[in-house]
Design a protein that fits this description.
With about 325 residues, the protein is α/β, with parallel strands linked by helices. The chain has helices at about 10, 45-65, 120-135, 155-165; strands at about 5, 25-30, 35-40, 75, 80-85, 100-105, 110-115, 140-145, 190, 195-200, 205, 210, 225-230, 235-245, 250-260, 265-275, 280-295, 295-305, 310-325.
Length: about 325
Amino acid sequence: MTLDLVSRRSWGAREPRGSYDRLTSTKGVKIHYTGGHVDPVTLADHGQCVAAVRGIQGGHMNGNGWMDVGYSLLVCSHRKVFVGRGLHRIPAANGPGLNSGHYAVLGLVGTSGVTEPPDAMLHGIRDAIEYLRDEGGAGSEIKGHRDGYATSCPGGPLYAWVKRGAPRPVGSGSASNPIIKEDDVPEIVSLGAGRDQTVPAGGVLAVRWHTEFVDDVKGHGADGAAVLAPGSRWALCDALVKLRGLPPGAEVDVAWSRYDRDGKTFEDDAWALTYTADPAGRVEASVGGQFALDTSNQLRLRILNPGPNEVTVEKVTMAKIAMFKR
């Protein structure tokens, strides 16, 4: 299973106003939608997905008076799974008397705008369900919010998918969000064998690619360091990152970041995710998304190491570059 988990810190979650009630296990998972408008811009701009999740939390806390966002996990069209209340915590979205029976997972679709869940979102919801089963004690049931509660949620298209048994879509994902697997995609640029780079303790590394394999779209500079656009373009980039040397449980951030065209002035993190080292002190991360570029800037992959140990970048593979007009 590919799980692209977005931590609460990464999406800018507010602190809960109180303590969560403990949830040891559930019958399964109930699927939800927003019940309102979801701007189609979220399909192309992942930053808008992050903003939408923050808005949902604000609505639940300020409008509903809840102590936090009501969902256990939230899933967007880029197969990102946002941590809401998370594992082993009773949600608030299923309805009075129903919250302890099922985890609550939201798909970022609504009654207008984005109403049909893209394939990548369905994959993400399945990722979330499997994560809740493996780590959270969720049972086998997959139901809609309307099952047992008087509501139209999760909407017609998403509920029809639930009634079919919530199958994974055929293929690897939507065209706008390919799901990368190291064994079945051509490398475009890579660090190459025996060419480790390191991230100093408390430091940042902007990855420089050592070996070029294929680059049909000519999407990076001569040194392979940057993704460049010939004009106003959406750049679709996916990378696989392998790190070692972290303390077990330590966190490291991997970010697609925009710089000026010369690569000297940092502009912003177009997308960043936080990963936690396994007991062996290793991280294997899949980082991808769609990013707005033009002839004034470039995109680079950065690794941010807040910890006390130097981190070795064992491998980075740019699995895919694609561009299309904005």
